[in-house]
Write a structure and sequence with these properties.
By secondary structure, the chain is α+β, with helices and mostly antiparallel strands. The chain has 6 helices and 7 strands, in the order H-E-H-H-E-H-E-E-E-H-E-E-H. Helices cover 39% and strands 33% of the residues. The radius of gyration is 25 Å and the shape is globular.
């Protein structure tokens, strides 16, 4: 007869394939968290501004620096389109039915966002595709789509190594980018109310996070609550930057007007 130990080992071996298959099945089952919202921001009205002046000002690249660079607090750089970035731009447009596909003459602009974490500095370079369009009144309007990003970690080698193991960010080749986890499109335009012009920015964001379904049980709250809280948190982060941008435009317009006239 078999000893108790032998019987135990034999039972473990007999059930191992079945448990392994169950574990694999659980890993394949995925759950998603979805975050998304449309946000609208409007500047203070411009005093005694003519449509022609506002339009001429808004067509200047300085406005893009203010819109994308949080009021000029972050550098905005034009980059040369690559085949990979053009492909990513088309893929980004597929996420938004109203987005216009890229064409010759459109701009690709990069901005860096720096985040200081314990022991590590994380720089995210976001690439935006920018189109200069006209609205129904013939006034200039910028359509901006986040098409790609790249993250770079700096700090003590062991911490950077752990970060890269968790994220895989170091696997992105030099000069290449990844599709962004966040899908973001914005339209920056000129609006008129009560005979006065103002600047308007409309932002739409969508983020889908996929994770193993087995982890649902250990979420700190319900999936719906997490989506609501996450959406609100992301909205606040976007609003912080866009409000700085939208507040800077009327000031820049008044300064430009003095020089232009």
């Amino acid at each position: 007869g078999l000893s108790i130990a032998q019987s135990f080992v034999q039972e473990r071996i007999r059930f191992a394939p079945r448990k392994h298959a169950a574990a694999l099945h659980a890993e394949k089952q995925k759950e998603t968290l979805k975050f998304g919202k449309e946000l609208l921001f409007t500047s203070k009205p411009l005093s005694d501004a003519k449509a022609e002046d506002v339009a001429n000002f808004f067509r200047r690249n300085e406005c893009l620096d203010l819109i994308l660079g949080a009021g000029g607090s972050r550098p905005v750089k034009e980059i040369t389109p690559t085949p990979q970035l053009k492909k990513l731009w088309l893929e980004a447009c597929d996420q938004f039915e109203s987005a216009s596909p890229p064409a010759d003459g459109d701009l690709m602009l990069s901005t860096d966002t720096v985040l200081f974490l314990p022991g590590i500095t994380l720089t995210t370079t976001g690439i935006n595709g920018v189109k200069l369009l006209e609205d129904e009144n013939g006034l200039p309007m910028y359509e901006t789509v986040l098409i790609a990003d790249r993250r770079t970690a700096k700090g003590p080698a062991p911490i950077v190594w752990i970060y890269n193991q968790l994220t895989g960010d170091d696997k992105v080749k030099e000069g290449e980018y990844s599709p962004p986890q966040a899908r973001v499109m914005s339209r920056s335009s000129i609006t008129e109310k009560n005979g006065k012009f103002a600047f308007k920015v409309d932002v739409v964001f969508r983020i889908v996070v996929e994770f193993p379904a087995v982890l649902v049980r250990i979420l700190p709250t319900s999936k719906e609550k997490m989506e609501e809280q996450g959406t609100n948190s992301i909205s606040k982060g976007i609003a912080k930057d866009v409000e700085i941008s939208i507040d800077s435009l009327p000031k820049a317009f008044q300064s430009w007007l003095v020089v232009a006239n």
